[in-house]
Amino acid sequence: MAAPTPTARTTPTGFKMPDGFKTLWTFASKPGVQLWEQKVKPPPIDGGDGIDTNTMHNTTWRTKDAKKLKTLDVTTFLAAYDPDVITDIFALINSNQGCTVTFPDGSTLAFWGFMTKFEPPEHAEGEFPIATVTVCPSNWDPVGRVEAGPVFSAAPGT
Predict the structure, then answer these.
(1) pLDDT digits (tens, 9 = 90+) for 109-132
(2) Rounded to an integer, what distance in angstroms lies between the CA atom of residue 99 and that of residue 126?
(3) DSSP label at 145?
(4) pLDDT (tens digit per residue) in 128-154
């Protein structure tokens, strides 16, 4: 097999996000939940560590191979909240459902997932209470009972 040959970088096309405002989070069962996003971390996409494929026949380099499965990983967002949201949180915790991250240009990433944690901060005078919400993508369609990966939809015109 031949050695890899260099590939020239080409200029990217498309929309370069100049600002993270306005990124929003939606739970399908409670699209109007009383959470006001302040910071949203879209879910990381992870292929996992390489598989060690070394043998005693390697002579100079350790070798690796890529795994086959991908992970849409656990993510968080920070939000202001109405104390009345607690009842909705009880319903959202561990409830596998459609989750959507909407990016500033209007594009979306939709996936199956569930809230695993709602963590309010210590409350103190003169401080704005912002809760940390943790969501675990499940990649499991609970209705069709099948594996179902995330779906990215580009914004119109991008």
Answers:
(1) 999 999 999 999 999 999 999 999
(2) 33
(3) T
(4) 999 999 999 999 999 999 999 999 999
For residue 124, what are its two tokens?
Answer: 């103190």
Nearby residues of 40 by Cβ (< 8 Å), 6 or more positions away: 20, 23, 24, 25, 77, 78, 101
DSSP 18-86: S---S-EEEETT-TT-SEEEEEE-PPPEE--SPEE---TT--S---EE--S--EE--EEEEEEE-GGGH
Residue type, 127: E
Nearest Cα to Cα of residue 155 among 109, 97, 99: 109
For 25-75, the pLDDT digits (tens) are 999 999 999 999 999 999 999 999 999 999 999 999 999 999 999 999 999
Our measurement of the distance from residue 7's CA atom to the centroid of its chain's CA atoms, rounded to an integer in Å, reads 30
* DSSP letter assigned to residue 93: B
> Which token pair is 126?
């003169």
Instruction: Give me 43's structure tokens.
Output: 């879910």
**CA atoms of 65 and 112, how far apart (whole Å):** 28
The single residue listed with the structure tokens 């943790």 is 134
